[in-house]
Specification:
The chain is α+β, with helices and mostly antiparallel strands. The chain contains 25 helices and 11 strands. The chain has 3 domains: 150 residues, no CATH class; 140 residues, no CATH class; 272 residues, no CATH class. The strands form 3 sheets. A 5-stranded antiparallel sheet has the order 3-6-11-7-8. Strand 7 and strand 8 form a beta hairpin. The longest helix is centred in the first third of the chain and has 36 residues.
Length: 701
């Protein structure tokens, strides 16, 4: 019922305070929104861009410069992707059977140009996708799609490179017979059955992987102190083209030896004792390197077919045909100068010396002739025999380490060539092999080996007995049958030397064998001529009825050793031969490995690549249980006497004079081609008086 008590309650209206408008000072101090940074990585692919993001949808993610670079990058690799898909869909790569059916080298080259376009498109797309992922970022399904596409591109790149190699090989085999001089040069390159002439091909997968690495790029950029992209950036840079160009530039720095007219790298590594020799040698070695490059390019089918139409090495290296894979192929071959490309290197040195006498490469006949082929501004000549000058430049250029003499034996046509090689080694162009041992002083076995080489003895090994506690006479724990006696053991092991001399009879060979026969107190000898029936040997130096033993042992009973300094008893009884001198030649067991059976298969055996007959010598020391240095010195003295440099019994002074005569006479033969103003240091023993005053490590009889 209405009334004052029953009136509905009304809400009271409360007047709220009006918020005053902000003052001018408050407006200026309000925090501003932070602009988004550019999310692109810099050229180093580590540092984030410092600029503000202004481009991108729906949110800005890139600055103007990187947005411009990305647009060019994306357009470039998507266009390349279209080319790849089209050529792959059309199946333009010829099969192996199709390539084998080609009869014209021009057809193979034309197909090669199409395959090259396919390779270029794959390379551009691959690099573009890598740059997109590394610098501009990929996420989710987009990243997965990129990875799948890159795996596809890698497979296609390997297939395309294999096909291109087959096409170039086919074109090479069809082209070479059309040039008579080229055909003759290829035939004379060497026996393909020899392992040193087989180029170990880098697998195509590895070749492709190496060509995509950028380690060398960053090394060159650091050395040249410059960035990958020019500064300041404008946004119009083609990042793919920049990377590919820098990658090739980095590899081309490896070829500075061939293109640097000042020869800085060669000059730094050339060590000659006079300025006149330095200038001449540096210039000649520079020409040799250029000729080596021509030889390698000539024998490599892909490189040779790409060299057609090029006028010089520089033109070849700078051309667009010469890609990263080609640079890697060439580098692989040039790093094997004392390996399977050694014969090419020798021929290149000989070419250089011949062409230099004709007045230089460019002044020779302008066209191909019967003995030369025009190539990249120079000539490839038919192989010639080795001269002393060729040997000197070859060894100076390759600068081989020790234990590499066997590689050069393949260049020797006869035993005289082998002795010439070893003579150059003895005169300081190659370090002594490690089997000589490290025994500094006038009795160093390496000195003896040098004098043997100069005289005409090719030493391939020196071996000392293994030091044991059982050398000589020692009492054992065996039970003796005689009263008040013990069982004694006598052990003899002899140093031996393995060498070769000329197979044919001549004054030195006959005189040297006479010297050895005359001293059974010093030498026990086994001689094996390669022209004799198999395993027929000549033996001398042993006592009548005894077998030449490298190692033998016997036991006997005698009174035990006295506590005073009494001499041990004299040995008696029959010897048991553990290893004979014949075993040193023909042994096949683990403990008796023969030089002509087991060691002949050793990759570093001196005579492994020898192609001419010789007489092998195994010389045992007649005095057991002493170092091989004694045997080497006595044998060197016998060789010097056979050459007429010495006579009579050995003394250090007589040996020094005889050895220095051999050094001087052989140096005049080996270095006779040098200009008179060149001076060279030779390994004379009498120029080291401080060493000659030292005591020898043993008395030489």
């Amino acid at each position: 019922m209405p009334g004052p008590r029953n009136k509905p309650k009304r809400k009271l209206k409360v007047k709220k305070d009006r918020v005053p408008p902000p003052s001018a000072s408050q407006i200026h101090t309000a925090p501003e929104a932070v602009p988004a940074p550019c999310l692109t990585l810099q050229v180093d692919e580590v540092t984030l861009c410092w600029r503000t993001a202004t481009q991108g949808y729906p949110t800005a993610t890139r600055c103007d410069i990187h947005h411009g670079q990305f647009r060019i990058l994306y357009r470039r690799y998507t266009d390349a992707s279209d080319v790849v898909d089209k050529m792959n869909g059309d199946r333009l790569l010829p099969t192996h059977e199709e390539i084998m059916g080609y009869t014209d080298w021009r057809t193979a080259l034309e197909k090669g140009h199409s395959v090259r376009q396919y390779i270029d498109a794959i390379r551009v797309e691959t690099e573009g996708r890598h740059l997109h992922a590394r610098r501009f970022g990929l996420e989710g399904e987009q990243a997965n799609g990129h990875r799948a596409r890159i795996r596809f591109l890698q497979r296609e790149m390997v297939n395309a490179q294999d096909t291109l190699g087959q096409l170039h090989t086919c074109a090479y085999e069809l082209y070479i017979p059309t040039i008579p001089c080229a055909h003759e040069i290829v035939k004379s390159a060497g026996d393909p059955s020899c392992p040193l002439h087989l180029s170990p091909p880098r697998p195509t997968e590895e070749l492709v992987a190496v060509s995509e690495t950028d380690t060398r790029v960053w090394e060159v950029l650091r050395a040249e102190r410059r960035p990958l992209v020019r500064v300041p950036e404008t946004g119009n840079e083609d990042l793919i083209e920049i990377l590919l160009a820098e990658r090739k530039h980095a590899l081309l720095t490896e070829f500075s030896l061939f293109m640097d007219p000042e020869c800085k790298a060669i000059r730094e590594e050339t060590d000659t004792p006079c300025e006149a020799a330095t200038e001449a040698v540096v210039g000649m070695i520079h020409l040799c390197y250029q000729q080596i490059a021509r030889r390698v390019i000539f024998y490599e089918p892909t490189l040779f077919m790409k060299s057609l139409g090029k006028t010089s090495l520089d033109d070849f290296f700078q051309s667009s045909d010469f890609d990263v894979e080609d640079a890697i192929r060439l580098i692989d071959l040039l790093t094997e100068l004392i390996g399977f490309t050694l014969k090419w290197c020798k021929d290149a040195v000989a070419d250089t010396l011949i062409l230099s006498r004709e007045g230089g490469e460019d002044t020779a006949a302008g066209n191909n002739t019967d003995d030369r082929l025009r190539l990249l501004g120079g000539y490839i000549l038919k192989p010639t025999t080795m001269t002393n000058e060729t040997w000197w430049y070859l060894l100076t250029l390759t600068n081989p380490p020790n234990d590499m003499e066997h590689r050069f034996v393949q260049l020797c046509q006869n035993f005289d060539d082998l002795i010439t090689l070893l003579s150059f080694c003895a005169l300081g162009l190659l370090p002594s092999p490690t089997f000589c041992g490290n025994q500094p002083g006038p009795s160093d076995p390496s000195i003896s080996r040098k004098h043997l080489s100069l005289c005409g003895v090719a030493v391939a090994d020196m071996v000392s007995p293994r030091p044991t506690n059982a050398d000589g006479l020692v009492p054992t724990w065996g039970r003796a049958k005689k009263r008040d006696c013990v069982v004694w053991s006598e052990h003899e092991a002899r140093a031996h030397l393995f060498a070769a001399i000329k197979n044919e009879s001549d004054d030195f060979t006959d005189a040297f064998i006479r010297e050895l026969r005359a001293r059974p107190d010093l030498f026990q000898v086994v001689i094996r001529s390669e022209t004799d029936p198999e395993q027929v040997v000549e033996v001398f130096g042993a006592s009548p009825g005894e077998e030449l033993a490298s190692m033998r042992i016997r036991t006997f009973e005698a009174p035990p050793p006295a506590p005073t300094l009494n001499p041990p008893p004299k040995g008696e009884g029959e010897w048991e031969v553990k290893r004979s001198a014949f075993d040193l030649l023909y042994g096949t067991s683990r403990d008796t490995r023969g030089y002509l059976t087991v060691f002949a298969l050793n990759p570093k055996w001196l005579f492994r690549f020898k192609t001419f007959p010789v007489k092998y010598l195994v010389v045992l020391d007649a005095i057991a249980n002493r170092d091989h240095g004694h045997l080497a010195r006595n044998l060197a003295w016998a060789a010097l006497c056979a050459r007429g440099y010495g006579a009579g019994e050995y003394t250090l002074q007589k040996y020094t004079k005889a050895g220095d005569k051999a050094v001087h006479e052989r140096a005049e033969e080996c270095f006779g081609w040098m200009p008179i103003e060149w001076t060279w240091s030779l390994p004379f023993m009498d120029e080291r008086p401080e060493e000659l005053t030292e005591l020898e490590f043993g008395d030489f009889v």
